[in-house]
Amino acid sequence: MEFRMIDNAFELDAPFGRLQISGDDQYGFRPFQLLVSSVAVCSGGVLRKVLTKMRVPFDDITIKAEVERVKEEADRVSKIHLHFILTGTELSEEKVKKALDVTYKNCSMVQSVKDSIEIHETFEIRR
Questions:
Q1: Quick one: three-class SS letters along 40-84?
Q2: CA atoms within 13 A on the CB side of 29
Q3: Summary mean pLDDT of the chain
Q4: 1-34 per-residue burial string, b: 16 or more CB within 10 A, e: under 16
Q5: Is the pTM of this model over 0.85?
Q6: Residue-wise pLDDT tens digits, 62-111
Q7: Confidence (pLDDT) at 57
């Protein structure tokens, strides 16, 4: 990956498109937003695969992410809370819990940050 400086941001030309990143959200995605997005979407993708392998049918997965930052430590991300909202008529608490346990262990982004950022996961089932 190559990031080029432009006016108030850095730019990456990726196979899918151009991404602008800046500490100021007027000029691009903020780095912490990309970090949280990476953890959330990686977890969601792994969860989707795990549920499919478990042959647990579902209609939809929505992920809400909340982030805590520590101002006194360069505003670092200290905690990410992921709340998964799963929709499906055949979902059970037990199967989703098991799938999330497997997801946590197999999400590369969670495994990359787990020793420095607390990752907390919750879920709800909607029918």
A1: HHHHHHHHHHHHHHCCCCCCEEEEEEEEEEEHHHCCEEEEEEEEE
A2: 13
A3: 97
A4: eeeeeeeebbbeeeeeeebebbeeeeebeeeeee
A5: yes
A6: 999 999 999 999 999 999 999 999 999 999 999 999 999 999 999 999 99
A7: 97
Please provide the size of the chain in residues.
127
Give percent of the chain above pLDDT 90.
100
**CA–CA distance, 34 with 54 (Å, rounded to integer):** 30
β-pair type (76-87, 118-126): parallel
Distance of alpha carbon 45 from alpha carbon 103, whole angstroms:
9
3 state SS of 99: helix
